[in-house]
Amino acid sequence: MTAPEETIISVDPDSQRSLRERGLEYRIADMAVDADAEGFLRADARGFLDEDPTDAELAQMRETMRTRRNIGVYDPEGGAWPIATVNSWVTPLSLPGGEIDMWAISSVTVAGTHRRRGIARSLLEGELRAAARAGVPIAGLTASEATIYGRYGFGPAVPVMRFTVDTARAGWGGSETSEGRLVYADKQSLADDLERLHEASRTLRSGQVPGWRGRWQRMAGLAEGDKEAAAVRGVRFIGADGAVQGAMAYTLAEVPGGFRSEMRIRSIITVSDEALRAIWRFVVQHDLVTSARVDLRPIDDPLPWLVADQRAVTAEVHDHGWLRVLDIEAALAARSYSAPLDIVLRVDDPLGFAAGDWRIVIDDSGRARVAATSDSPDVTLGVVELSTIYAGGVPATQLAAAGRIHGDSDAVSALSRAFLTTPSAFLGIWY
Ligand SMILES: CC(C)(COP(=O)(O)OP(=O)(O)OC[C@H]1O[C@@H](n2cnc3c(N)ncnc32)[C@H](O)[C@@H]1OP(=O)(O)O)[C@@H](O)C(=O)NCCC(=O)NCCS
User: Fold this and answer.
1) Of ligand 1's atoms, which has the minimum distance to the CA of residue 117?
2) In the chain, how many domains are there?
3) Which of 3, 89, 223, 224 has CB atoms 3.0–4.6 Å from 134's, for a disulfide?
4) Helix runs in 48-179, H state only
5) C-alpha 148 to ligand 1 mean position (Å)
6) pLDDT for position 380
7) Helix (H) / strand (E) containing 358
8) How many CA atoms lie within 13 A of 215 on its CB side?
9) Domain that holds residue 345
10) Is 144 close to ligand 1, i.e. is its CB under 6 Å away?
């Protein structure tokens, strides 16, 4: 965390006031205090329609939440658990040519008894003000529904791919040889591999954020309460140099009636193309497996080019990483760009953070200078659209074609070329 601790932990006074006027208390839920921790975690699980956690699950979840700024909304007449929850932490977001501090937001829940009274709005706007006050230039989240967060200025900036593979039909079309080898990994080694490989690979693509210990344990079948834990298997790819270059966690679920199984892939993380090819080959050629499913793959994953029959691979692109620019000057200066640019952007932001007319000059070195200007705009867009194109994962020209970015078409094309990035932006985890 680079922001001062006191600004991180204080709650937003405006949201505190507006919720107090409705008889609700908005305060930090302290994970060091048993009652606070238990109430927050049970309310969080209820909000996401999960079963009530066991004591062992609570203990494991509490470890993760200790590193976050957890806020509960308490109704004096609504029981001991908060009726709404949110948490946040400052984490690096990888970008082309660098990283930026991002205010990650999670655990957004409002109890079914208190829905649609503006409580989520108070939570979200409170988070954005707290982030801006702490000097964090951008906020991010992953969303349960795609219709919730646009109203607060978030855009679906990092699309990902979901694959369903008819393995019986696909056939391997890639190379038959590899310098390295695949070996099975026990659950603890698998958790360690996934954690290390994610950390090693996350700066290779724009849009990634670090994971945390509890997440890798969950992927590897080590989390309390994981009903499929016993079914989790892992493989790792060891390169010719002896280093682990990739790992996959998966389960096999029997398809009724045929002694055949579906492979459900929890995670594939690789740091080399060779490792990814070897893991895909293991999936496509696995005996007694008729289909494989995996979500959260990069939209430029090579899988369709590794099989003999591309029609055996169903690829669905969907929204995943949502970003919200707060400080446009700091955000645009934090990344590098693919082409030079000299343009005036008019940004509309109903919450005010990024609003204004901004001249953006990108020189041959690929870095941007951004300053407020009184010159007339070449391109006009909302903060949702700015946030959507920010990480280089969505072309500005696509949003212009949808009528969501306006302006001179040469200027929009230049904006698009400058912002897009290769390899494609990617976010490999939910948070
Ligand atoms: C999503 C959730 C947090 C909304 O809480 P809420 O307090 O009812 O929301 P608010 O009353 O503050 O509504 C704010 C706005 O969001 C809209 N909204 C609320 N829930 C929505 C949903 N699920 N889908 C789309 N829009 C939604 C409201 O209509 C309102 O719109 P407006 O600004 O045009 O008036 C709540 O329904 C919930 O806890 N859902 C289950 C857990 C979940 O999915 N959390 C999100 C995790 S990413």
Assistant:
1) 11
2) 3
3) 3
4) 55-65, 119-133, 167-170
5) 6
6) 98
7) strand 356-362
8) 15
9) 327-419
10) yes
